[in-house]
């Protein structure tokens, strides 16, 4: 990927409209999680660790192309300490020599507000809603604690973000382009708009947008506030056309004073127009290949050889209910039952990153994963003994180690991506790029990636354990020529539809929007 030079020169190879935009603008990236986390060492020193997740990877790439400021929430005590130190020194930004692409600014809510915002509303409520994760007769219960977390957490933190963004915008020497990310910040655009009516606001929603009926499980005050917040943006972007259409329907159903134009994908609301766009996120092939070729990854690759078998099935995920990890193992169990000839010949390697352990559902899910893996290993350990072999059918690797996960992608025969619902799923794209064995991808219809890669993968419905077992079998036994054909097409698609394209398509639309809006600004308000 190209880069921005601190002297203001923008990569000459960028598309003209994008280059022009970047030369005049400062990108203000706004996300809950920051690009780096601070931690205290045992002797009290402040050290940094790169943030994790798709948003960070994608927006770190964006920061490379322009003058960039990142506004994020202080999540750790050390983040808060660092923000406080910066405040005492009167410094407007945290500058990090190891991360020259951006300057950082923290929003610092008090811990209770943060807890309500992140651990009660954003993750258990909005994330669960947007991934259809509820067992609706039992959950969610929107009780007084939920409302308190909404008012004193989600609303408060979104307001703090808006204050920080408007302060950054006011101090900016170049035109600020505000790039809001994800479901944590649905209310912030409206709060920003109250203060700065002319700012260019773009919001990308990385996760699915469910059907408007499902949104009815949220009280109308909440869902209206969310729609109104998003409609304060100039552009709202989604991963797939289905999510974008669903958003239009949700707005139509909830805001009687909004006018939805389904043909132009626009909403007029309170004198403004919001455009809805589709930008399927992707990976940076150069960067992913570089990590996969790193010494660290090679060391892991060597070590992981011991875990391979005649056939290797792989999954790489956050340990997260929407990823459908447990059903994946049940399908594997079923595969072994249906095809005992595989006993001793196939290994399932699962690399899972624990996440959000402050939320009860996530801890319970991790326990369920451990239990099902234990059961399968115990069951087939006996079967293997009868055959006189030592064999462990599942190897579970828990921890956050990106080079190790990429190393494993090189040698799978089947990659299992059976998410219930997923905004995109970048693992499917990383696997398609890195795999060296013409491996087959078993892909859920519920993953955003399915819309792009589904035609070359084996399709599964996420609840269909029997169908997933069959797809695993088909993948493992697919003729070599067919595997090679599909793998080649998958790789070509990922190379062509990369992260640059995701970014440039958005910047291109922002530039267009900006040029359409400019004449309006020339009209001075009458006094
Ligand atoms: O999928 C969207 C996303 O924002 C990812 O970038 C990230 O992995 C996740 O959701 C948020 O995770 P966290 O709560 O750990 O920041």
Q: Could you characterize the architecture of this molecule?
A:
The protein has two domains: 16-282 and 501-516, Rossmann fold (3-Layer(aba) Sandwich); 285-496, Glycogen Phosphorylase B (Rossmann fold), CATH 3.40.50.2000. The chain is 48% helix and 18% strand. The protein has helices at 16-24, 54-63, 77-88, 111-130, 144-171, 188-195, 212-215, 220-230, 241-254, 285-292, 295-304, 325-338, 360-387, 402-409, 426-434, 450-453, 465-477, 480-496, 499-522; strands spanning 25-31, 36-40, 46-50, 67-73, 94-95, 103-107, 175-181, 200-204, 235-238, 258-261, 266-269, 272-278, 311-318, 346-353, 394-398, 414-417, 440-444, 458-460. The chain has a ten-stranded mixed beta sheet, with helices on both faces. Strands 15-14-13-16-17-18 form a six-stranded parallel beta sheet, sandwiched between helices. Strands 2-3 form a two-stranded antiparallel sheet. Strand 11 (266-269) and strand 12 form a beta hairpin. The chain is globular, with a radius of gyration of 24 Å. The model is unreliable at 520-527 (pLDDT under 50). Bound molecules: 6-O-phosphono-beta-D-fructofuranose. 6-O-phosphono-beta-D-fructofuranose is lined by residues 33, 53-55, 182, 206-207, 355-356, 423.
């Amino acid at each position: 990927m190209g880069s921005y030079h601190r002297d203001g020169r923008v990569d000459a190879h960028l598309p003209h409209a994008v280059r022009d935009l970047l030369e005049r603008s400062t990108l203000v990236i706004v996300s809950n999680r920051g690009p780096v986390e601070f931690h205290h060492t045992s002797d009290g020193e402040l050290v940094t660790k790169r943030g994790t997740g798709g948003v960070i990877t994608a927006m770190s790439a964006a920061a490379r192309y322009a003058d960039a400021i990142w506004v994020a929430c202080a999540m750790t005590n050390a983040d808060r300490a660092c923000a406080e130190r910066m405040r005492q020194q009167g410094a407007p930004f945290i500058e990090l020599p190891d991360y020259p692409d951006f300057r950082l600014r923290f929003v610092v809510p008090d811990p209770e507000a943060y807890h309500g915002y992140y651990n009660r509303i954003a993750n258990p409520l909005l994330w669960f809603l947007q991934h259809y994760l509820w067992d609706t007769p039992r959950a969610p219960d929107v009780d007084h604690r939920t409302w308190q977390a909404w008012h004193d957490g989600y609303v408060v933190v979104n307001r703090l973000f808006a204050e920080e963004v408007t302060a950054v915008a006011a101090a900016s020497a170049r035109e600020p382009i505000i790039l809001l990310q994800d479901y944590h910040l649905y209310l912030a655009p409206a709060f920003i708009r109250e203060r700065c009516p002319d700012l260019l606001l773009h919001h990308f929603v990385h996760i699915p947008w469910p059907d408007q009926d499902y949104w009815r499980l949220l009280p109308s005050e909440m869902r209206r506030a969310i729609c109104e917040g998003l409609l304060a943006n100039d552009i709202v972007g989604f991963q797939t056309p289905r999510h974008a259409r669903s958003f239009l329907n949700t707005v139509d159903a909830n805001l009687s004073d909004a006018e939805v134009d389904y043909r132009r994908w626009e909403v007029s609301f309170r004198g403004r127009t919001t455009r809805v766009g589709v930008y399927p996120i992707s990976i940076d092939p150069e960067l992913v290949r570089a990590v996969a070729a790193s010494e660290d990854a090679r060391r892991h690759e060597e070590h992981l050889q011991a875990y391979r078998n005649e056939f290797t099935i792989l999954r790489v995920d956050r340990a997260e209910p929407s990823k459908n990890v447990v059903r994946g193992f049940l399908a594997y169990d079923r595969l072994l039952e249906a095809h005992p000839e595989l006993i001793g010949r196939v290994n399932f390697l699962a690399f899972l990153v624990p996440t959000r352990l402050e939320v009860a559902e996530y801890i319970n899910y991790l326990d369920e994963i451990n239990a099902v893996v234990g059961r399968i290993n115990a069951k087939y350990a006996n079967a293997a003994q009868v055959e006189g072999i030592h064999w462990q059918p599942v190897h579970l690797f828990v921890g956050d180690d990106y080079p190790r996960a990429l190393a494993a992608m090189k040698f799978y025969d089947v990659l299992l991506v059976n998410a219930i619902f997923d905004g995109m799923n970048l693992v499917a794209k990383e696997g398609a790029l890195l795999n060296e064995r013409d491996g087959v991808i078993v892909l859920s219809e519920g993953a955003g990636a399915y819309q792009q890669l589904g035609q070359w993968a084996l399709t599964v419905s996420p609840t269909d354990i029997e169908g997933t077992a069959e797809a695993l079998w088909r993948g493992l036994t697919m003729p070599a020529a067919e595997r090679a054909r599909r793998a080649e097409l998958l790789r070509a698609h990922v190379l062509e539809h990369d992260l640059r394209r995701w970014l440039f398509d958005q910047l291109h639309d922002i530039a267009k929007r900006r040029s359409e809006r400019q004449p309006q600004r020339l009209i001075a308000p009458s006094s």
